[in-house]
Amino acid sequence: MDAALAKAIFFGLVALGAGIAVGAAAIGGGIGFGASARGMLEGLARNPNLENKLRLYFFIGLAFAETAILYGLLIALILLFTGVLSGKAGF
């Protein structure tokens, strides 16, 4: 295997890893959003008087779910733009 082919495979795998990172984070975040919404609606159905308190906890839960998505995006951006694809990573 020559160096050009090895380099092309390496860069392709880096791009694939970035895509998988974003996709997995989005799936996890979607599951978190769904679980938060389900919990809010179940709690609201049981006791409608706690709407304001449940809303606060709902938004906190959404923030935690959103951080997983942002971390996945951050990992993908680090993989793509820290010199790996420009050849500055010692390759």
TrEMBL record:
Record's GO cellular component terms: plasma membrane; proton-transporting ATP synthase complex; proton-transporting two-sector ATPase complex, proton-transporting domain
MF terms (GO), sorted A to Z: lipid binding; proton-transporting ATP synthase activity, rotational mechanism
UniProt keyword terms in alphabetical order: ATP synthesis, Cell membrane, CF(0), Hydrogen ion transport, Ion transport, Lipid-binding, Membrane, Transmembrane, Transmembrane helix, Transport
Compartments in which it is found: Cell membrane
Residues of the V-ATPase proteolipid subunit C-like domain: 16-79
Membrane spanning residue stretches: 6-35, 56-81
Name recorded for this polypeptide: ATP synthase subunit c
